[in-house]
Automatic annotation (TrEMBL):
One of its GO terms (cellular component) is plasma membrane. This is Magnesium transporter. The chain crosses the membrane at residues 282-300, 312-332. It is a multi-pass membrane protein. The lineage of its organism: Bacteria, Bacillati, Actinomycetota, Actinomycetes, Pseudonocardiales. Keywords: Cell membrane, Membrane, Transmembrane, Transmembrane helix, Transport. It comes from the Bacteria. The keyword Coiled coil does not apply.
Length: 338
């Protein structure tokens, strides 16, 4: 599918939600104008974060010139539906990732796309919509101050940690939904239409989740390469922890997709078995009923026979029907045909 281009008019003002500057592990200033970014970047000991929501290429032009951002990366930052990836350019890296939210009430999965430019002393996040909870990322930075002195790696780790934790929470929620679906399959009287709706809805959500979760393993692995200087002696254990969570989320997503397929196959097999059991019972009862039909048909012949037109003949035919029907019922029951 072709990427959907942001159609906001050139020259419109992007919604700048947050800006921050850290110096030597201490927050120096927050929510300052973008025009002041160059003043902070002049100090090599300062790490700057800028967040933009739904900007155009023109909105990014000033920052792109200031940070030396590649034109192709700027284009990807404003175009939607990019795959999760890490592109490396001269002087900076470009990251695309997705935050996810799973609604258990509807069984639907919502995704929010985020792009990020990573330079030596700056992190610029570009949100494609308001769905990405950037305030939650800020709270995570404020709560985990042990890495603040790392500068940009500290900011990147907090961002990825938030994204991957969201993936893992969605996987856990889907796991609970799949377990509920398993219980529903083995009900004595399962609702087949409800089973089909829930299984297809879960499979659709898992497919969407797989597209954004699986690539994150490679993205984080690439970020940990020594030449990017993000995963140093201080931050490497933290990046490895995020990578481990991303791997677990990816593996569990694959397992759940296979499990939903297995549940669907099991449902069809159980449905077929129930149908076969019903057909077996119907056929058995048809055979039992065929005996009285044959006897009454024989005694209905228009020719004289012993007992014809007498009460003894009626009772004889009735006894024959009862005995043969009871015998067939006992035989079929013994063979588990009824």
């Amino acid at each position: 599918m072709a990427p959907r281009v942001n159609t906001a008019p050139i020259g419109h003002s992007p919604r700048v939600t947050r800006t921050r500057a850290y110096r030597d592990g201490v927050l120096q200033k927050a929510d300052f104008p973008v025009a002041d970014v160059s003043d902070f970047l002049a100090d090599p000991g300062t790490a700057v974060w800028v967040d933009l929501c739904e900007p155009s290429e023109a909105d990014l032009a000033e920052l792109a010139a200031e940070l030396g951002l590649h034109r192709l990366a700027v284009e990807d930052a404003v175009h939607e539906r990019q795959r999760p990836k890490l592109d490396r350019y001269d002087g900076h890296a470009f990251l695309t990732a997705y935050a996810v939210r799973f609604a258990a009430e509807t069984g639907s999965l919502a995704t929010s796309e985020l792009a990020a430019f990573i330079t030596r002393n700056a992190l610029v996040t570009v949100r494609k919509d308001d769905g990405f909870d950037i305030e939650a990322v800020v709270r995570r930075w404020d709560q985990n101050t042990e890495l603040t002195q790392a500068g940009v790696p500290f900011l990147v780790h907090g961002l990825l940690d938030f994204v991957v934790d969201g993936h893992y929470e969605a996987v856990q929620a889907l796991d609970e939904q799949v377990e509920a679906l398993e219980d529903l399959v083995f009900d004595d009287r399962p609702d087949q239409s409800q089973l089909q709706r829930r299984s297809f809805r879960l499979r659709k959500s898992l497919t969407a989740l797989r597209k954004v979760v699986l690539p994150m393993r490679e993205v984080i692995s690439s970020l940990m390469r020594p030449d990017l200087k993000l995963a140093g002696e201080l931050t490497r254990p933290y990046f490895e922890d995020v990578h481990d969570h991303a791997r677990q989320a990816a593996e569990q997503t694959e397992s759940l997709r296979e499990l939903v397929g297995t549940i669907r196959e099991t449902q069809l097999n159980l449905q077929g078995n129930r149908l076969n059991l019903i057909m077996k019972k119907v056929t058995g009862w048809a055979a039992v009923i065929a005996v009285p039909t044959a006897v009454t048909g024989f005694y209905g012949q228009n020719v004289p026979y012993p007992g014809n037109g007498t009460p003894a003949g009626f009772w004889t035919s009735t006894a024959v029907m009862l005995v043969l029907s009871a015998g067939l019922y006992g035989l079929f029951k013994k063979k588990d045909w009824l």
